[in-house]
């Protein structure tokens, strides 16, 4: 790679070279430790004499911008970067728009490795130790071979045919979803799926109805598109359909494992929701984020499998079953919006990275995903039982579990008044991560409770963490 230096004309060649190199070093564009080209090579590149290059290097070395290492070459010295005044966002014509984005709250951000706690009940995260590294490594090697044999063109915005086929077969088997390969669109996690559907379904002022309490990133995303988000209350059967307002264009629900409460929507409520959406001419987004893990009772049908009118967009993710870092999700779209969403995706990112797509297609086709889900199901079932046992035992004076039969989080409702912010802060001091449910409420009156994820905490750590929680509850309740 050539060093970016521009020489104009034939006057003051040394001065031009000196000023450009010094400016690049002071600004940090040439980072400390960067090796500069040998004088002979740079002279050929710029079409000037080698002596000019050598003299400039010598001057910059004398001024401590460069350093020479015998037998290795000339390197940029370590220096503090020169601070350049940058324009503030308040000085831009789009200051108001930028400020609105800067003021958005941050929800459900996972901690970095350095900021993680020893015993963390965070939701939406899995134990990385359960991930089948050997199987995935083999599938990734297969993916590299597929890419090596390709022509190097951009791929399809809707995803690789092999992966779309694997997804269609998998969710038909595991969730009873009624779809063909051409209904599947691969995306970068469920959040991109929500973004793309919202882009083609809403305009500023459009009404979007969603469960309240509900998933804050979805609410914030819909709002960022200018939609008017209406929080619809949830009862023991799910979203209260009769309170979905007229004029609604989009309805977002989590029927199989309501987020964050964990309840499953009843069959009667599902039928009523489908009828209400048909009356409104609205599309329902069914976010089926973790219902592949079911522990008791009969499996519930997906809302999409009950849809006879093509009004349900089914959204799934592999972040919960595999790893969040993969950023792979999918949509099963009704014909009415399929083409529009595919075009929106092409404008957004052209297509999802093909390397993980090839790997995941083989991973699913060979049965590795189902094997992994079964193995994790056994582990999560044990953690869930341990958590329920403790809540029914020594934690019973303060907390009760909301009935939940799927996923890998449950919600505990407070039975007595608890200073929740104080509890959370005290828990951090003893290395326990707790997450109140109050921030998940939007327009409804919040209830006090805790969202207890058991996907990331190790089974043997649960009792130790709950012992510390019990001791803290005795102090603050």
Number of helices: 14
Q: Which strand order do you get reading across the main beta sheet?
A: 4-11-10-9-8-5-6-7
**Whole-number count of domains:** 3
Strand count, sense and barrel status of the largest sheet are:
8 strands, mixed
Secondary-structure element series: HHHEEHEHHEHEHEEEHEEEHHHEEHEEH
The CATH superfamily name of the largest domain is Type I PLP-dependent aspartate aminotransferase-like (Major domain)
What does this molecule look like?
With 477 residues, the chain is an alpha/beta fold. The chain has 3 domains: 13-76, Winged helix-like DNA-binding domain superfamily/Winged helix DNA-binding domain (Arc Repressor Mutant, subunit A); 119-126 and 371-476, Aspartate Aminotransferase, domain 1 (Alpha-Beta Complex); 133-365, Type I PLP-dependent aspartate aminotransferase-like (Major domain) (Aspartate Aminotransferase, domain 2, 3-Layer(aba) Sandwich). It contains 14 helices and 15 strands. It has helices spanning 13-27, 39-46, 50-62, 95-102, 133-148, 161-175, 189-201, 216-224, 267-280, 335-349, 354-365, 368-392, 420-429, 459-476; strands at 66-69, 73-76, 119-120, 184-187, 207-212, 228-235, 238-239, 248-253, 283-287, 312-317, 329-332, 399-401, 409-414, 432-433, 449-453. It has an 8-stranded mixed sheet, with helices on both faces. A hairpin with a 3-residue loop joins strand 1 and strand 2. The radius of gyration is 28 Å and the shape is globular. The termini are far apart. The model has no long low-confidence stretch (mean pLDDT 92).
């Amino acid at each position: 790679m050539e060093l970016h230096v521009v020489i104009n004309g034939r006057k003051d060649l040394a001065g031009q070279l000196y000023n450009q190199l010094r400016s690049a070093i002071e600004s940090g564009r040439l980072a400390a430790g960067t090796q500069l080209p040998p004088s002979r090579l740079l002279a050929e590149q710029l079409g000037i004499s080698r002596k000019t290059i050598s003299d400039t290097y010598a001057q910059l070395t004398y001024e401590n911008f460069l350093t020479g290492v015998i037998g290795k070459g000339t390197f940029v010295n370590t220096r503090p970067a020169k601070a350049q005044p940058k324009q503030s966002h308040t000085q831009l014509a789009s200051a108001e728009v930028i400020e609105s984005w800067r003021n958005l709250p941050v929800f459900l951000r996972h901690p970095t490795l350095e900021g993680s706690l020893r015993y963390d009940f965070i939701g939406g995260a899995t134990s990385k130790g359960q991930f089948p590294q050997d199987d995935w490594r083999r599938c990734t090697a297969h993916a590299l071979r597929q890419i090596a044999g390709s022509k190097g063109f951009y791929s399809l915005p809707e995803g690789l045919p092999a992966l779309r086929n694997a997804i269609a077969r998998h969710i038909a088997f595991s969730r009873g979803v009624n779809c063909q390969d051409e209904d599947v669109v691969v995306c970068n996690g469920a959040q991109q799926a929500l973004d793309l559907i919202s882009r083609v379904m809403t305009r500023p002022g459009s009404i979007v109805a969603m469960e309240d309490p509900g998933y804050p990133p979805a609410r914030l995303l819909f709002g960022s598109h200018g939609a008017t988000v209406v929080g619809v209350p949830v009862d023991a059967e799910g979203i209260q359909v009769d309170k979905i307002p007229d004029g609604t264009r989009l309805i977002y629900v989590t029927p199989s494992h309501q987020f964050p409460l964990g309840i499953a929507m009843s069959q009667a409520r599902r039928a009523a929701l489908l009828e209400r959406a048909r009356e409104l001419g609205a599309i329902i987004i069914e976010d089926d984020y973790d219902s592949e893990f079911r522990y008791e009772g009969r499996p519930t049908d997906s809302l999409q499998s009950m849809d006879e009118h093509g009004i349900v967009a089914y959204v799934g993710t592999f972040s919960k079953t595999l790893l969040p870092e993969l950023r792979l999700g999918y949509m099963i779209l009704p014909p009415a919006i399929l083409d529009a969403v595919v075009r929106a995706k092409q404008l957004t990112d052209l297509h999802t990275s093909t390397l993980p797509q090839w790997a995941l297609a083989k991973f699913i086709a060979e049965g590795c995903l189902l094997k992994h889900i079964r193995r994790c199901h056994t582990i999560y079932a044990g953690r869930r039982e341990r958590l329920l046992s403790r809540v029914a035992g020594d934690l019973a004076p303060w907390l009760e579990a909301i009935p939940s039969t799927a996923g890998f989080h449950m919600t505990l409702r407070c039975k007595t008044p608890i200073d929740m912010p104080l509890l959370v802060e005290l828990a951090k001091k003893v290395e326990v991560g707790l997450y109140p449910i109050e921030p998940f409420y939007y327009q409804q009156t919040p209830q006090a409770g805790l969202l207890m994820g058991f996907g990331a905490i190790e089974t043997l750590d649960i009792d130790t963490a709950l012992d510390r929680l019990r001791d803290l509850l005795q102090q603050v309740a």
